[in-house]
Automatic annotation (TrEMBL):
Keywords: Signal. Residues 1-20 form the signal peptide. One of its GO terms (molecular function) is peptidoglycan lytic transglycosylase activity. InterPro entries: Lysozyme-like_dom_sf (IPR023346), MltB-like (IPR043426), MltB_2 (IPR011970), Peptidoglycan-bd-like (IPR002477), PGBD-like_sf (IPR036365), PGBDSf (IPR036366), SLT_2 (IPR031304). Residues 26-314 form the Transglycosylase SLT domain. PANTHER family: LYTIC MUREIN TRANSGLYCOSYLASE, MEMBRANE-BOUND LYTIC MUREIN TRANSGLYCOSYLASE B. This is Lytic murein transglycosylase. It holds the Pfam family PG_binding_1. GO terms for biological process: peptidoglycan catabolic process. NCBIfam families: MltB_2. Residues 333-389 form the Peptidoglycan binding-like domain. It comes from Marivita hallyeonensis.
Length: 389
């Protein structure tokens, strides 16, 4: 699933004399969308047919508010998503679709293991792609005022696909958040990056593996993927390492990290690159080195835990060993994390939504408070830190 940041989504909006605001009555909102579609140049027949029978889907709203899995720490989350069956299926698919992956790597420079990881996590290699009506999901989420800047542009992108004959507003289904196909792409991404990988003259992401994989590869390239470069590697830190140097904001050349004693756990760090150290569960847990390509994963999904798990799974598919889980301090519960976020907010930190999820804003605030209190600056909130606050 790709989630745009608000600023990017807003920049993609087309201006026009009519703007459909979120909230209010659903029927009035749809009426405003129809007027905006006309202002954007869609034919009346296209507009009428696209919105015919549209409904507000309460199941979509419930799904949007039920994302507690992202409260899990990395180790638990990774063990939940990565199974022996998924690894075996990934390796089997790598063989089965070897020629397609060769084309992806040649044309877009994206490793097959990265695409396999997304294919696995998004739809279990295409076996479950979601059964929500895509049009209804997009209109429902655009009407909801949580993230209208993300979903409203997708409605008109879906309309463009419909006008081209590549979208059926009555029958096209997918994930609750409007993504379609085996690697779950939003309509705007399909317009920009859809590839006819099997040569049948259509881009069919739900049933054509070549179309889905080629489109996913092109999208990752468009998001900044650097051809042929690594993305993640497990490492070991020396005793007494300065934990304040960890975290994505601190970027150094590999040679400097090596001089500080950082070593690859199973293979040497790859010279010629820069990167950052990631401690998803603090200084007692696993440690990874993030190369520049790791940041592209955040353009696909903004959940730190999901991104790290997908990037790690891609390395596993490429032959990396199971990570060393170490002995991290226990994670805070969801309620404890929300209490921590409120306490950090009271101290003037911007932690975003009080949601119990250890996102980038909360991590940055935790680091600042750890430094202030003389604790290891590893961005991992513990019960001891919560008690100190």
């Amino acid at each position: 699933m790709r989630k745009f940041c608000a600023a990017l989504a807003t920049s993609l909006l087309l201006t026009g004399p009519v703007t459909a605001e979120c909230g209010g009555g659903f029927a009035d909102f749809v009426g405003d969308l129809k007027a905006e579609a006309q202002a954007r140049g869609f034919a009346s027949s296209v507009t009428t047919a696209f919105f015919d029978g549209v409904v507000q889907d309460q199941a979509v709203l419930r799904a949007d508010r039920r994302q507690g899995v992202f409260q899990l720490p990395f180790t638990q989350f990774a063990r939940r998503l990565i199974s022996a069956n998924r690894i075996e299926a990934g390796r089997a698919n790598a063989v089965r679709w070897d020629s397609v992956f060769d084309r992806v790597e040649q044309d877009y420079g994206v490793s097959r293991h990265v695409l396999l990881a997304f294919w696995a996590f998004e739809t279990d290699y295409g076996s479950y792609q979601g059964d929500f009506n895509t049009r209804d999901a997009l209109v429902t989420l655009a009407h909801d005022c949580r993230r209208p800047e993300l979903f409203r542009p997708q409605i008109f992108a879906a309309m463009e696909l419909f006008a081209q004959g590549d979208f059926d507003p009555q029958r096209t289904t997918g994930a609750w958040a409007g993504e379609i196909g085996m690697v779950q792409m939003l309509p705007e991404d399909i317009l920009d990056n859809g590839v006819d990988g099997d040569g049948d003259g259509q881009v069919t992401l739900k049933t054509s593996v070549p179309d889905a994989l080629m489109s996913g590869g092109k999208m990752l390239q468009s998001l900044g993927w650097r051809a042929g470069e690594p993305w993640l590697q497990e490492v070991r830190l020396p005793e007494g390492f300065d934990m304040s140097l960890t975290g994505l904001p601190t970027v150094k050349p590999v040679t400097e990290w090596q001089a500080l004693g950082v070593q690859g756990r199973s293979t040497p760090l790859q010279s010629g690159y820069s990167g950052s150290l990631i401690l998803p569960e603090g200084h007692g847990g696993p440690t990874f080195f993030a190369y520049p390509n790791f940041n592209v994963f955040f353009e696909w999904n903004q959940s730190f835990t999901y991104v790290l798990t997908a990037a790690y799974f891609a390395t596993r598919l490429g032959g990396a060993p199971i990570f060393d889980a170490g002995s991290p301090q226990p994670a805070l519960s969801g309620e404890q994390m929300m209490l921590l976020q409120r306490k950090l907010q009271d101290r003037g930190f911007d932690v975003g939504e009080i949601d119990g999820i250890l996102g980038s804003g909360t991590r940055a605030a935790v680091r600042a408070v750890q430094k202030e209190l003389g604790l290891p600056v590893d961005a991992w909130p513990t019960k001891a830190l919560l008690d100190r606050l």
